[in-house]
Structures are given as C-alpha cells and as structure tokens.
Specification:
The structure holds 2 protein chains of 2 kinds. By secondary structure, chain A is an alpha+beta fold. In chain A, about 55% of the residues lie in helices and about 15% in strands. The longest helix of chain A has about 70 residues. In chain B, strands 6, 7, 8 and 9 form a 4-stranded antiparallel sheet that branches. A 3-stranded antiparallel sheet of chain B has the order 3-2-5, with no helix packed on it. Chain B has a two-stranded antiparallel ribbon with strand order 1-4. Chain B is rod-shaped, with a radius of gyration of 60 Å. Classes of the chains: A alpha+beta, B alpha+beta.
C-alpha cells in the first residue's frame, strides 16, 4: 500500500521527516543524523585518503539545507500552464489549483493529479496521419474497417474524420471513466455511423457535410455526458468523404457525365448564339435589298416619267410633226436591224406567195 | 540517558509507523473497497477517504468505481429479413455492488469473459428481430437502448450496471459488400447515361429553338421585304399613272414606240411588210398621198 513507496523506494532518500511529514529538524532525529554523517565522512576519507573532514557545523548546515530541499519538494507542487492541479487528500479530491507553485501536504496525505486541461486532443478515425509526437508528417494510412460505413439507402461511403476534444471537468475526467481516449474514439465511430446511417449517400457526399459534422458532435457530446466523462467535443471535422475506392470510377464518370451535359448545352448555346446573329444579319440584308429595290423602282419610275413628261411637253408644242418624227425614227431603228421581206399586195394579187421560211432561215445562217 | 530516551522515541515512532502502514488504507475517489476478515466480507466502502482495518486479520480488495470499457469482438448476426451484418459493439459499465461483483466475477479481468457472451446473445436476440434498415437507419438508437437494457438486467447478477451498449460498426460481410459495390456502380452508370442523354436532349432543344428562330427571323424579313417591294411597285404605278394620265393617247404612242424598239431586237426578227404601211408612205409615191393616210 501507499505507505511503502515513501519509506522504501521514495524519490528522496531518507533524510526527511517521518511518515507523517513532520518537520525535518526534530530533536530526536539528531543522533541518527550524526551517525549518518559520520558514516559518509568515513567514506569520504576512504576515497580521499589524508583529506581532513569538514568541521561539524558545516556538515550540520549541509544536512539542514538538504532537509529543507526535501521538505520543499514534499510540501509544494508545480502546475504547468497547460495543466490543472487536482489535489486529492486521502483519496478525496479537495481542491483545484491553477498554474503556478502551490502548497500541499506530503505524499501519503495529499496527492496531485495534473491533467492537461488546455490541450486540444485530436482523434483520427478512418485514417492515421502518421504525425508522430515529434511532429514528423508520416504517410497517411487508410483504415477501411473504420472508414467504410453504410448509408441509409444501403450504399457505402468512405468517411475519414477527426475529433477535437478537451477536458471540460478535470475531476470527472480523472475519476469517472477508465479510458478517455478509447472512449472518445469508440463513441465517435458509433456516432458517425449512426448519423451516416440516417442519411442517403448523395447528401453526405455533397451538401450535408456541415450538418453531418454538427449532428455527430451533438450525439457524441450527449453520449459522453451520460458517462459524465468531463469531456467537451469541440469539433468534428470531416476530412475525406468519398465513395469507396471500388466504385469511385463510376462516381467520377457521373461527374464527367455532368460536365458532358454542360458541355453539350454550351455547344448548343454557342451554335444558337452564332446562328441567330447570322440570321438577323441575313434578315437585315433582305430588308435592305427590298428597300433598295423600292427606291430603285421609284427612282426609275420617276426618271421615266420625267423623261416622258419632258417629251410630252415638247410634243404638245407640235404634236403632229413630233409624233411622225418619233414614229419614223423608231421604225428606222427597228427596221434597220431586222430581215425584211416586202410584199406588194397589189403586185401579188391572185398569187399565193410562196415563202420557204426554213430556207430563208438557212440562208441567213449560212450568211452569218 | 538521553540516548536511551532517543532510542525509545525512535522505536515508538517506528511502531506507530508500522501500525499505520498495516492498519490504515486509502480509498480513492475512483475506487471502492470491501474489507474481508479471513475471506468473510465485513465492510463495503464506497466513499473515498482514509480507513483502518485490523492488520493481518482483515484484508482489503479494491475495485474500480469508474465507467469501464468492454469492446466485444466483431460478430455476424442475421437480421429479421435474413440479411447478414457484421456488428461490432462496445459496452460501458461500472461496478455498483462490489460484494456481488467479488462473489460472481472476482476481478475486472474476468469481466470480459463473463459479460461478452451476455452482450453477444443480447445483440443476436435484439437484432434478430429487427430488419436491416431498422438497424442501419431507422431504429438504431432504440435497438441499442434495448440491448443495453437486456445486458443491464443480466449484468445486475454480477453487481454491474451497464451504462451503455453501443453498436460501433454495423457493416456488411465482404460478399454482400461486393454486391453493394456492384449495385452502386450500376446506379452511377445509369445516372451518368441519364446526364449525357439530358445533355444531348437539351442541346437538341436549344439548336432546334435557334433554328426555328432563324426561320422566323428570315421569314419576317422576307415578308417585310416583299411589303417594301410592293410599296415600291405601287409607288411606281402611281408615278406612272400620274404622269401618263396627262395625255393617255400620247402615252400609248410613246410607250408603243419604246416597246417596238425593245421588243424587236436586231437580228432575231424577220418581218413581212406591206409597202402600203405608213412607214412606206413615200416608198412608191413621193407626194405621199396615195393609199395609206396615217391613222389618226
């Protein structure tokens, strides 16, 4: 039982007070002490023959200082900045001390536990990042047996996540549960599977990440609170949420198909945005051509009429002469360029004139 | 004299220390203890503090008071709908009756061998009457509570309180897992095909719309163009009519002259003429008043 550790293999040998931790300078101890010193002096003499022993008062002083040191360590303890000192007196937690140097009664009466309450602890589920305690980033190794889980629609997802937790209540943490790390991890796995099991695969892979994280955090906290573990789950963070490697190609193909769908639509849009302006241009061309035709037509008509009107004006001054002149001029031009056969009606009366039209034609062609 | 006194004091202190060492013991806040007198339990201590016992005659056994772990081995269970599942559960328990625990189990190391079968049979019992989807999705929480309750009932015989039994993992056996993977793959392939078809469909729709619009635009343009042309023609007619109405007779003549000139091209026409037409008025008669008076 605890007593023995002080008297036997205690960290500071001998000198200090009795088991009750009374002052080190009690009168009755002196003979013992003297004897002890004498013995060590003898040993010193053996080591350095001829060396004279130190005078008695000096030895006494050394002894007193030694005892004071031992007492100092027995009666005080140190709490580091990341720790909380929980003082247990005869098994009962009696007080908690912040970082710094504090008084305590020596070992068998009071013990001190120093949980690291400010430290954020990390638990990895589904993978091990291989971050050693020295901080070397090792390779990430996957743990499929932890990370593969069933979804509500009987699919399987590969989920890696980390849990950040902190000690909320040092006393509960120290004295209520046996194995906090293991407990957090098992609760985390259980909670994640429960939450994932209630959802379908698609939301988990895409938009429901945050919801999942929050649900797992809440569930973990509830379970740990029923254990009164004194642990606060600060964050659950999903790292990798993927389809299992066995089917990931099919999932990637879905992504590719989605991209294809976009691409086809974009191409069609591109076609539309090329063809429509072209058509509008074409339409404009047609309209402009029509407008041109209209203007041309009107202009021609105007031209022709104004020519006619000019002629008419002159004609009115001398209608007969003009008319005849125009007739003759026109006929001159018309008849000038055509083949003509003139038949005098009176000369040929009673005779049916024979006109071999095809021969005439040939002759003309031959002439040409 | 002084030395003798000192010796007495030392011996007395030593005796006290020895007595304290053998007679006193501490029960920590996370422990509970039973005091045995030659094997017969005489006291149960559940509060932390400093306690005494009669040395040699009485011995103390301490037990953990914290919540303890028990992780069971993975086991395959068959759900009510004949689907098989690999289930890995863990339990959290504490020793509430140290005496009963001492009698039934003796020490913590033996708990595993005593409690594991209880948990396993409770798992089989409860999960055997639930369906696969109940376990995975719908009633997991309730099923776990049911299991915990059954285990707790049996655990009482060992002086244990089972705080919680949770299903850590409930996965498919490898063969079924492969089937699920196949199904997932097929579903994704179908989805991918659907996406591509949707893409093609949408693209066709967009193109068809564009083509239709093109046709409409061109049609509208043609319509407007024809209208414009018509307007042009109408304008032309109006202009002509305006002008020609001033002297229809002369217009007839004038236009005829133009038409003759346009219509009878040199080289492609052969004419049979009678010399008594107006053109030949002076052909045989220089005075010009024989036959053909010009028609007025």
């Amino acid at each position: 039982m605890p007593w023995s550790s002080q008297n036997g293999g205690g960290r500071k040998s001998g000198g200090g007070g009795g088991p009750w931790g009374q002052g080190p300078s009690g009168g009755p101890h002196q003979p013992d002490l003297e004897e002890l010193l004498k013995r060590s002096q003898d040993r010193l003499k053996q080591v350095m023959p001829g060396g004279s022993g130190l005078p008695g008062p000096v030895l006494f002083l050394i002894a007193v200082v030694g005892c004071a040191l031992v007492a100092f360590f027995a009666f005080t303890f140190r709490v580091n900045p990341d720790e909380l000192g929980v003082v247990v007196r005869f098994g009962k937690p009696v007080r908690q001390e912040p970082p710094g140097l504090h008084f305590r009664l020596p070992y068998p009466i009071e013990e001190v536990r120093l949980p690291k309450v400010t430290r954020q602890n990390i638990i990895e589920v589904g993978f091990r990042s291989g971050m050693t305690s020295r901080g070397f980033p090792g390779g990430v190794s996957d743990r499929p047996e932890e990370s593969l889980m069933l979804t509500g629609d009987e699919n399987i997802v590969d989920v890696d996540f980390v849990v950040f937790w902190r000690i909320r209540d040092a006393q509960q943490y120290l004295f209520n549960i046996q194995n906090p790390e293991v407990t957090v991890k098992e609760v985390a796995e259980s909670a994640m599977r429960e939450v994932v099991g209630q959802s379908n695969i698609q939301p988990i892979l895409t938009e429901a990440r945050q919801k999942t994280e929050q649900a797992v955090q809440k569930l973990m906290q509830e379970v740990l609170d029923t254990y009164q573990a004194g642990i606060r789950i600060e964050e659950v963070r999903l790292q990798k949420v993927d389809p299992p490697t066995q089917v990931i190609d099919a999932f990637r193909d879905v992504q590719a198909a989605r991209a294809d769908r976009e691409r086809l639509q974009n191409e069609a849009q591109a076609y539309a945005s090329r063809v429509l302006p072209e058509a509008r241009g074409e339409a404009e061309r047609i309209l402009q051509a029509a407008r041109g035709y209209k203007e041309q037509t009107v202009a021609e008509a105007t031209g022709q009429t104004s020519r006619f009107l000019k002629v008419l004006e002159e004609y009115k001054k001398a209608p007969d002469v003009t008319r005849r002149r125009m007739y003759l001029e026109t006929m001159e031009r018309v008849l000038g360029g055509t083949d003509k056969i003139i038949i005098d009606g009176k000369a040929g009366q009673g005779v049916v004139p024979f006109l071999p039209l095809d021969q005439l034609q040939k002759r003309k062609e031959g002439a040409n | 004299m002084l030395r003798a006194l000192a010796a007495v004091v030392v011996v007395t202190l030593g005796a006290i220390a020895a007595a304290a060492y053998f007679a006193l013991f501490v029960v920590h806040v996370n422990e509970q203890a039973i005091v045995l007198e030659f094997g017969k339990p005489v006291r149960i201590i559940s509060e932390p503090g400093l306690y005494w016992k009669i040395p040699v005659v009485q011995t103390v056994d301490t037990f953990d008071k914290r919540i303890l772990d028990l992780d069971t081995a993975e086991q395959e269970v068959t759900a009510a709908d004949q689907k098989r599942l690999k289930v890995d559960a863990f339990a959290r328990y504490r020793i509430v009756d140290p005496l009963l625990f001492y009698q039934a189990v003796r020490d913590e190391r033996s708990v595993r061998s005593r409690l594991s079968p209880v948990i396993e049979s409770a798992l089989r019992r409860v999960l055997g009457s639930a369906t696969f989807t109940d376990l995975v999705r719908d009633k997991r929480e309730a099923l776990m509570k049911q299991i915990a309750k059954q285990v707790n009932d049996e655990g009482k015989e060992f002086g244990l309180e089972v705080v919680d039994v949770r299903i850590k993992r409930a996965d498919l056996p490898d063969q079924n897992q492969k089937n699920v993977f196949d199904r997932m793959r097929a579903e994704r392939q179908r989805e991918a095909a659907e996406f591509r078809a949707e893409g093609t469909g949408a693209a066709n729709r967009i193109k068809a719309n564009a083509d239709r619009e093109v046709t409409i635009i061109k049609g509208d343009a043609t319509r407007d163009a024809e209208q414009t042309r018509g307007e042009g023609d109408a304008e032309r007619n109006r202009i002509f009519a305006d002008a020609f109405n001033r002297d229809p007779d002369f217009f007839g003549f004038y236009r005829s002259m133009q038409a003759y000139e346009q219509g009878i091209k040199p080289g492609d026409t052969r004419m049979l003429l009678s010399p008594d037409s107006e053109f030949f008025r002076y052909f045989s008669n220089p005075s010009g008043n024989v036959t053909g008076q010009p028609k007025r």
